[in-house]
Amino acid sequence: MNDTNQRLSEDDVEALLPWYAAGTLDTQEADQVKAALATDAELSRRLDLVREEMNEAIVLNESLGVPSARVMEKLFAAIDRERRAVRDPAQGGFGSWLADLLTPRAFAFGAGAAMLLIALEAGVIAKLATQDRATFQPTSVPGTRGFEIGAFALVRFSPQATMADVTRFLDSRDAAIVDGPRPGGPGSLYRVRIARNYVRREELERLVKDFQSGSNNVIAVAMPTE
Amino acid sequence: MSANLSASDEILIGRIAQGDRLAMQVLFARHQVRVYRFVLRLVGNTAVAEDLISEVFLDVWRQADRFEGRSAVSTWLLAIARFKALSSMRRKPDEELDDDAVGAIEDASDDPEVSVQKKDKGAALKKCLLALSAEHREVIDLVYYHEKSVEEVADIIGIPEATVKTRMFYARKRLSELLKTAGIDRGWP
Fold first, then answer.
1. Which domain holds residue B29?
2. What average pLDDT does the segment A24-50 reach?
3. Which end of chain A has a smaller Cβ tally under 10 Å, C or N?
4. How many domains does chain A have?
5. Contact A21, B143 (CB under 8 A)
6. A69 SS3 class
7. Could you give the ipTM of this predicted complex?
8. Is the dihedral of CA A8, A11, A14, A16 positive or negative?
């Protein structure tokens, strides 16, 4: 609060009496107040007034009672609802990533991020729909990694695929672009959510393989990703 | 003891950030009463205060990994609680508190004059504490009951430290004036 070498004025000392009485001054200030009290009877009398106030303030607050059990029930019901939404993460690797993803903070942002993704998807799809005959061109989707839940693949679309082809295929698979494009040589890589639920690594590899093979050449490359 | 308690709270917050429900229960049990009383003094309604502290601790559960440890956990809790209380009163946190809330807290004591007649100085003092403005009541509670330092009060209310000292001084001055009106002259200020 104050420089260690700074002497407190009489007014400063008096202003600090409440904190002195409560024991919340730092040592330097407390020592100065204590020294002033030792030589100033009026200041000591005023400290007694402070102590009276403090005593009654404590009594008053203590008389306010305690919250009912309803508060704890409501709070932990809300917490448990959020916890139930969290899938049991797999051991290590991908599972650890998912566990990190589902910390309370990340989960709290999940709903907001989900809304953002919906808006982003709507924008991408709208653009695709209006350019039905054009081949698929990279459309920037701000990364939201860390907030989504699901299974994901890194995907490069075929240069020959049209916007309509991509949209139709993604819709048919309930898939969505969630991030990209990322630098990846010729063509661009997109992070695509291919399932809404978390799956283990082996299952993810199978899903990605199936995702690509069923794309009728809309997808050139697909690989599992976190 | 305070330092140990503070360190322990920080450990709990770290565990809560990892999704530890038990740590959340411990933190809640440790702080719920004081947070409740702080909020109740602001909003003056027990049902509203209970709803708000539930929201406060749910925020803690969700935002534990944002806690940077620059203040005590209890200070962080009170700051969240204050923001939520003021939001619930449809006020911005930097605006003055609602004085109407004071009347909502029941006080079974007599009027100050009657208390003085009973020579019950404590009861009169309590009555005058209840009669303070919400702004003055808040700073008095934070300093005397919640044992917050000048710096911590400044953090919770969002005002400079010098203003904290000034506000506390005027809160006490007003308290003396109310007591004087009730027939108790403390000879200060």
1. 1-94
2. 95
3. C
4. 2
5. no
6. helix
7. 0.85
8. negative
Inform me whether the C-beta atom of residue A103 falls under 8 Å from chain B C-beta atoms: yes
pLDDT band at A205 (very low <50, low <70, confident <90, very high): confident
Is residue B90 in a domain?
A: yes
Strands of A108-161 (E only): list them. Answer: 151-157
- Is residue B36 located within the same domain as residue B77? yes
Under DSSP, is residue B44 helix (H, G, I), strand (E, B) or coil? coil
**Tally of structural domains, chain B:** 2
Q: Residues with Cβ < 8 Å from B80, sequence gap 6 or more?
A: B56, B59, B60
- Consecutive 10-residue runs of chain B (189 residues): their mean pLDDT? 61 94 95 96 94 96 92 96 90 51 49 55 91 95 97 96 97 96 90
CB distance A22–B143 less than 8 Å? yes
Q: What is the 3-state secondary structure (H, E, C) of A76-110?
A: HHHHHHHHHCCCCCCCCCHHHHHHHHCCHHHHHHH
Task: Find the residue in B nearest to A99 (Cα).
Answer: B18
- Does A38 share its domain with A136? no
B17–A contact, CB cutoff 8 A: yes
| Dist. CA A78–CA A72, nearest whole Å | 10
DSSP state of A25: S
Question: End-to-end distance of chain A based on CA atoms, in angstroms?
Answer: 49
Does residue B121 fall inside a structural domain?
yes
- Mean pLDDT on A208-221: 85
Interface-testing mutation among A9, A24, A51, A87, with chain B (most B C-beta atoms within 10 A): A24
Tell me what pLDDT residue A144 has: 39
Smallest CA-to-CA distance from A34 within A60, A8, A58 is with A8
Contact assessment for residue A130 and residue A165, using Cβ atoms and an 8 Å cutoff: no
Contact state of B125 with A67 under an 8 Å Cβ cutoff = no
> Measured between CB atoms, which of B58, B143, B188 is closest to A49?
B188
**CA count, 13 A, side-chain hemisphere, A54:** 20
Q: Please tell me the distance in Å from A94's CA to the nearest CA on chain B.
A: 17
Name residues 76-135 of chain B within 8 A of A (Cβ).
Answer: 105, 121-122, 125-126, 129-130
Q: Which of B32, B129, B161 sits opposite A1 (nearest CB)?
A: B161
Based on the domain organization, do B68 and B122 belong to the same domain? no
